Amino acid sequence: MRCNKIRVISLLGFLVIVLVSLNVFLLSTLNSFSEERYLIRLKNLLEKEPDFKQLPTDSSDQYKIDVNFLLAKTELLKEELDVTLVTHCTSNHLHYLLDLTEHWRGPISLAVFIPGYDVVTSFTSLLGLYECHEAFRDRVTIHLVYPLSHPPAENTLQPYWKQALNQQGTCQEFLARLKSNVIAGEYGRNYANFKVPYPNNLLRNVGRSILPSESYVFVVDVDMMCNGNLYFSFLDYAQHINLIANKGKRVFVVASFESVRKLSPSLTKKELIALWDSGSVQPFYYQTCWKCQKHLDYDAWKSYHSSDNNLQIAYSVDWKDPWEPFYIAPNHVPLYDERFKQYGFNRISQVCETHTAGYDFVVLNNAFLIHHGFKIREGFHSAKDEENNRNRELFRTFKQELKLKYPQSTSHC
């Protein structure tokens, strides 16, 4: 009996040694493989030598543009129908990509605005995200826009690129700094920089420029998160209605909200409505420009119940001024007018032209966007009213131009 126990104990000891050895071997192999992949990626980045002087300028000759500065590892363009989320920001808002890649599971096209003093912080954050965040590396394609009014010193990028490469520490340290927004540019908000007007519409167009006109785009602000199943739900819906064969002049509106706290990608419409009823969520721009959002008819969206949880069209909406919804649309919708900068009328001008061009607006039943934090009148930068007034005058001119651009249209803003 004693001998049997000794044999069992010896056998168990041998198995433990084998398992530990196998585990060490597998970890060593995995670490070696990961290190090899890391070195390959780092080598590719070291070989990249951005040349500011060789970059093309935009049509206004005010900006240098570097399209596809960093390419997503996953193929961005596909033969079958796909939807790319298009967004934009400055270096101080790049931390939102950590959440955005969780909420949107498809490809993302990001245009980053880089005034000269933000070059190193922008490069540092982008390189860190590329190296340390798999979803970012796999699905986010980066484009850079530099204002010629504030170019990098001596019109060169190589020293700042190398400086950013040399600043890369451990991924744990980098992600902690990014999440706390320690890595940031000179200004806390995009619009707060009065020296360099933020060209939001140019950035949106740059993000769309790499996509064919027949693909679909979802143009949103970088601090707005969608329900986590929206990407795949829309693809399923598109397949169900054979959207590839039945493409038309129609955009799919996504209801937008604001939340006082960060919400999970797994949040359902039912849970969102409960938060709405409790007061911790409210419709987007509810306190600052309710007339800009109310035409969605939030009560109709709230009360719409389908037989299942699948995505579908809840109802259609006739566009009314000054409604500015967010929507998934074919990339052949009108581009954004790049004369609009800073705050005011930049998105609504594009929505207005989309309406004038004859597109229909349909609202999706189980799709929603949520902005980080409530928008309040006191929360805007000091020049907001001045910018809004200036862009209002431009918008009046813009609407007159649309009448000449679409002489046969019966839809007007």
From TrEMBL:
<keyword id="KW-0328">Glycosyltransferase</keyword>
<keyword id="KW-0808">Transferase</keyword>
<comment type="pathway">
    <text>Protein modification; protein glycosylation.</text>
</comment>
<keyword id="KW-0735">Signal-anchor</keyword>
<dbReference type="GO" id="GO:0035269">
    <property type="term" value="P:protein O-linked glycosylation via mannose"/>
</dbReference>
<keyword id="KW-0812">Transmembrane</keyword>
<keyword id="KW-0333">Golgi apparatus</keyword>
<dbReference type="InterPro" id="IPR043189">
    <property type="entry name" value="B4GAT1"/>
</dbReference>
<protein>
    <recommendedName>
        <fullName>Beta-1,4-glucuronyltransferase 1</fullName>
    </recommendedName>
</protein>
<dbReference type="Pfam" id="PF13896">
    <property type="entry name" value="Glyco_transf_49"/>
</dbReference>
<keyword id="KW-0325">Glycoprotein</keyword>
<comment type="similarity">
    <text>Belongs to the glycosyltransferase 49 family.</text>
</comment>
<dbReference type="GO" id="GO:0000139">
    <property type="term" value="C:Golgi membrane"/>
</dbReference>
<keyword id="KW-0472">Membrane</keyword>
<keyword id="KW-0479">Metal-binding</keyword>
<dbReference type="GO" id="GO:0046872">
    <property type="term" value="F:metal ion binding"/>
</dbReference>
<keyword id="KW-1133">Transmembrane helix</keyword>
<dbReference type="GO" id="GO:0015020">
    <property type="term" value="F:glucuronosyltransferase activity"/>
</dbReference>
<keyword id="KW-0464">Manganese</keyword>
